[in-house]
Design goal:
Elements (H helix, E strand, L loop, with lengths): L1 E4 L10 E7 L25 H25 L8 E8 L13 H9 L5 E7 L2 E7 L13 E3 L3 E2 L12 E8 L6
Parallel strand pairs: 3-6, 3-7
Antiparallel strand pairs: 1-2, 2-8, 3-8, 4-5
C-alpha cells in the first residue's frame, strides 16, 4: 500500500510530489508475505543465497516505488529533479546512520529512471530481466537528479503494520545549461 500527495498544477506553479513507499513484502517462494527488510552496508550479502535474496528484495523495492509513483501521478520526463529522501522505521534508535541504508535506497531511486531490460543467463538458459522505471527522469545521473542526504524521520510506532518507509519529496528543477 502506498500513499502520496498530488499537487494541482493550476494552483501550484512549483509542484512538489511526496511519495511514500512502504516496505514491500516478498511475493513468492518460502519467504512469501514477509517484509523484504532493510539492506545496509552493515549487512552486505556475502553468500550466493544472500545475493539472490538481496536481488529479490531490490526488485520488490523497485516495484513498490513504481506503484507509489503511479499512484501519486508523478509526471514523466520532468527533465531535472531534486529528491529529498526520508527513512522511517518502526521504532526510534540512536545508533542508526542513514548513510548505511544506501542498498535499500538505490532501487527506489532507480525506479525514477527508465525501465531496463537485460539479457542474461541463469543456469545456462537465456532469460530477460526487466527492472521497471517510471521515467520521471532519464537517469539518476547528477545532471538529471540532485539527491539530498537521506534523513531519518519520526518513528512509525511499534504497533505499525508497516515495517519501514522511504519517503521521496520530488521537485522539478530548471534545466542546466549544457
Amino acid at each position: 500500500m502506498t500513499s502520496a500527495s498530488r499537487p494541482d498544477p493550476a494552483t501550484d506553479p512549483d509542484p512538489v510530489w511526496r511519495v511514500v513507499v512502504n516496505m514491500p513484502l516478498f511475493g513468492d517462494g518460502k519467504r512469501a508475505g514477509q517484509p523484504v527488510g532493510w539492506h545496509s552496508l552493515n549487512n552486505l550479502p556475502a553468500s550466493t543465497a544472500e545475493k539472490i535474496l538481496y536481488s529479490k528484495a531490490k526488485k520488490q523495492w523497485r516495484l513498490a516505488t513504481y506503484a507509489a509513483l503511479q499512484s501519486a501521478r508523478v509526471p514523466k520526463h520532468l527533465g531535472r529533479i531534486a529528491v529529498d529522501i526520508e527513512l522511517r522505521f518502526p521504532e526510534q534508535r540512536d545508533d542508526r546512520n542513514s548513510e548505511n541504508f544506501g542498498l535499500s535506497i538505490k532501487p527506489v531511486i532507480d525506479a525514477l529512471g527508465k525501465t531496463e531490460i537485460k539479457r542474461t543467463t541463469y543456469r545456462g538458459k537465456p532469460r530477460l530481466v526487466v527492472n521497471v522505471g517510471w521515467e520521471v527522469v532519464e537517469s539518476d545521473a547528477p545532471r538529471f537528479m540532485v539527491q539530498s542526504h537521506p534523513t531519518i524521520g519520526e518513528p512509525l510506532g511499534r504497533n505499525s503494520k508497516v515495517r519501514g518507509q522511504i519517503i521521496l519529496t520530488i521537485r522539478q528543477l530548471p534545466q542546466e545549461n549544457q
